[in-house]
Protein 1
Amino acid sequence: MTRKRFDDLGCSVACALNEVGDWWSLLVIKQAMLGTRRFVDFQNGLGIAKNILCDRLSRLVDNGVMTRVNVGEHGTRYEYRLTDKGRDLFTVVVALRQWSERWNGNKDDMQLVDRSSGEPLAQVVVQNADGEVLTVRDVLFVDENGQPLEQAG
Amino acid sequence: MTRKRFDDLGCSVACALNEVGDWWSLLVIKQAMLGTRRFVDFQNGLGIAKNILCDRLSRLVDNGVMTRVNVGEHGTRYEYRLTDKGRDLFTVVVALRQWSERWNGNKDDMQLVDRSSGEPLAQVVVQNADGEVLTVRDVLFVDENGQPLEQAG
DNA sequence: GGAAAAGGTTGCATTAAGAAACCAAATCAA
DNA sequence: TTGATTTGGTTTCTTAATGCAACCTTTTCC
């Protein structure tokens, strides 16, 4: 019984989860955003088993989220760096962080601030084209013909 | 060897992933945002095994993301509805959707539009207090003493 | 040159996931 | 009212994933 694939589910969210939806991937990405580049530093920073880390890093590389760069003089010192695609997950990571802080309190040792001002960030929100904040009740899911689907709260 | 717990990792992202970080939870939540409330409808809509759906729903209920409401006359007709905490994951779901669409193309049968205007939504972004858009390079991770940590891209 | 570090791989035990069968209560059709 | 079907599960079995520890090779440090 191989694990269910999500990329043929006709859903972009499922497709995203297929790439970064397991327990560790987003934490590896968050660690990379924090500055970590070396295998051992990921291992120590996350407390992840080496074989799992191997698997996650190579999967992230395969999916174009990270790259493996050879930085050794003679061959076997590597760095794992975020690609543009990986860095673009910043929104997701921050949204998850803020959600957790709103509902579970701040469990984090560290804080995220604007580099130039030192001030905390604004809350990540969903907006319409005019910049108005939208909740799930303010949107419609429409099919390819523009027909709206039922929606709930 | 029980799966690693993330809620004692000193990280809000890890704490969030501990609640909704497995393969199915966010899809169940997205399905609920789409209007699904009944057990069978989740099952048909997602193609998930019943025992896994049972487990995920009850875990989401335990974590306060959904509630189980008895809607039957005599006892065993249930609806699973999002709580405020669950609805608040809208930002995360939309951010994931949009990321996937930006990098993998739109794999989705349906589209998300502003209910009042019918227009597509704006891209979810991270902003500072002044409303300026920030990337991961524009932020600093600081510890509890305000000391900045190294950061990369 | 010897020791340690980096980046893995392998083997084993435990847990989770998926499919299918089964089941009891409630509802629906006749 | 009876019988079938739906709903919301639970159980069993097989396969896959996770975690830990040991090991291994190349490279760097002293």
Protein 2
Amino acid sequence: MEQEEVGLALGLSLGSGPYQLKEQPSPSSHSGTLLEPSSLSLGLPAKDSPAAPVRIAAVKRELRMEEDDEATDRALYSVASSALVVAPDDDEGCNSRKKLRLTKEQSALLEDRFKEHSTLNPKQKAALAKQLNLRPRQVEVWFQNRRARTKLKQTEVDCELLKRCCETLTEENRRLHRELQQLHALNHPHTAAFFMPAATLSICPSCERLTGVPAAAATTNGADRPKPSGPGRATHLFNPFTNSAAC
DNA sequence: ATAGCTCAGCTATTTACTTCA
DNA sequence: ATTGAAGTAAATAGCTGAGCT
């Protein structure tokens, strides 16, 4: 395949695909988003780098080129390196994996908007895309990924909280067992309290007192639980999901 | 009521790119 | 200076549920 043919293939393929080729020098006149220098020339690595053959093969696959000869590769390099690759303005034919790195300014503005609203309506999306000189789809994807990151972080926080809660409960359980054994050993009159159903007993983590919920109340939701009936009474409730006592 | 369609959002995954040892 | 592993984030594919006809 000669250089002209490669150029035609690139032009045809990229012209209708997600990236368009423009002859240099015309960076100021392009209609799309200029990719960063590392993304120029179809992202081809240095001609003699080990990654070059792999990248060339990928580009040929992308362009559905059948030719497998050195001349085609050379031509591909020659044409691609003499052109600027620009991202398109519309959403048509986005089937390339070429990735645009957002600038600090773009990221900052997106973050600001995300703080205001974690989702965008089509109008907001279009306006933001225009402001950032990105495609609406890119803004949409950014918000999607940002929501996913937020959720992941929250999940990690929740997980850590549950882990600590579990450790606290395990420790309290051990302590209760020890306390029970001591009471049995001493035949303490309050031992009777420990024959309540196990599920109705817990320890208030803030004051470390044994708390007892009447069996009837323990089987219902919190709405009709008895209120504390005075200072020092053992009605402290512990919510394992907030790791805080309701006393 | 329900089947079919569209659309937005989510999740999982891929992959280009960066950073760092 | 180079390289490879690990991390990050943009992009993709596929699924789901809501809303509409």
